Amino acid sequence: MKVSELVKELGLKVHSGEKGLEKEIEGGYVSDLLSDVMGNADAGMVWVTLQTHKNVMAIASLKDLAAVILVKGLVPDADTAAQSESENIPILGTRQQAFETAGKMYGLIMNKAKKESTTGKL
């Protein structure tokens, strides 16, 4: 599943990093603790968080994440959005809570994987 598909399916707002919308999603990670994400998230994951500061993009870039979703209607700080643009890592937004966002994202990714495995497309 591409980030652009996730945006459409979940009705997410694209705050910044539009050039990265065609990245493939490999999974998701939910945490507000930067060291946790740095130690446990894998490349290609979408990170769900309420953190809005520039260090979010440092971690997203270091881990080669597909995108970051900010929950609860939060918006990225200006310098965070600027870093997102230069790194081509989309920052997306939703008014939903992290729990609801992660659940919906999980369902979409798993359904897409199931469809691809039954059609032989991976």
Task: Write a structural description.
The structure is a single chain. By secondary structure, the protein is of the alpha/beta class. The chain has a single domain, classed as HprK N-terminal domain-like (Udp-n-acetylmuramoylalanyl-d-glutamate--2,6- Diaminopimelate Ligase, Chain: A, domain 1). It is 45% helix and 16% strand. It has a 5-stranded mixed beta sheet. α2 (34-40) links the parallel β2 (27-30) and β3. α3 runs parallel beside α4. The termini are close together. The model has no long low-confidence stretch (mean pLDDT 95).
Compact description:
With about 120 residues, the chain is an alpha/beta fold.
Task: Please give a handful of descriptors for the protein shown.
122 residues, five-stranded mixed beta sheet, 5 helices, Udp-n-acetylmuramoylalanyl-d-glutamate--2,6- Diaminopimelate Ligase, Chain: A, domain 1
Task: Give the SSE map.
Layout: H1 3-10, E1 13-16, E2 27-30, H2 34-40, E3 45-49, H3 55-62, E4 67-70, H4 78-87, E5 91-93, H5 98-119
Helix pairs in contact: 3-4
